[in-house]
Hints:
By secondary structure, the chain is mainly β. The chain has a single domain (33-237), classed as Sandwich (Jelly Rolls). It is built from two helices and 13 strands; from the N terminus they run αβββββββββββαββ. It has helices spanning 15-25, 193-200; strands spanning 43-45, 55-57, 68-70, 73-76, 83-85, 92-100, 105-112, 125-129, 165-172, 175-180, 183-189, 217-220, 228-237. The strands form two sheets. Strands 1, 3, 4, 6, 9, 10, 11 and 13 form an eight-stranded antiparallel sheet that branches. Strands 2-5-12-7-8 form a five-stranded antiparallel sheet, with no helix packed on it. Strand 9 (165-172) and strand 10 form a beta hairpin. Mean pLDDT is 88; it is low at 1-39.
Amino acid sequence: MNQTGARPARKLLPLGMSLLLPFALGAGPAVAAPHAKAPSSGWQYFLRGDSAPLLRGWIHPGLPAGWSVHEGILSKSGPVQDLESTRTYKDFELELQWKIGRTGNSGIFYRATHEYRHIYWTGPEYQLLDDANTKDGKSRIRAAGAVYDLYPSPPGLVHPYDHWNSARILVRGHHVEYWMNGHRIVSYYLDSPNWKKRVAASKFHAYPGYGLAPEGRVGIQGDHSGAIEIRAMRIRVLP
């Protein structure tokens, strides 16, 4: 991965994390994200004031009932319609901050299409979860930061419910990276032999072409119970 700025100092990680990261990344331990050095130009903001100019409902235009935006914070407290971006994206860098409620379960999707009924049948997911109080949180492949049901996230990085976390998704061609709270947590390649093997062993095997659209919508999962808040959500198209 290309990074700008000086290489940050390597941090010591808990033993469990150091054992899992090579499996999830295939490229050694996590390093600090280069947020401070990233160019500021070209960013598009999903949330402004009390509006969400770059978001709409998965089924209906506009912001569906149950979602609200106040002072730049998007929130919901129970099951509602999923959201999607108002345009499609191919290669991009996405950043946001998220805060989950107790037992909350949500997610961020990318390159999703309307080929099937639900957004999660085409778009890979960055899991947003209260790990400590949910069944999925007991499995690293479904815990916060995981590529849901496909690639595990390392333990010990997600903050407890009702605390803010940062997320970053980098997509360029077939290469995808997930970051959480300043650490790279997952790196994988779409349509690689490893990807195909994992999809075939997951519930997504029933949806041909899952995760392989070259361009699609960014989405936010709303149809699960629990509260979620999102702020500072922005995207930058990569050349």
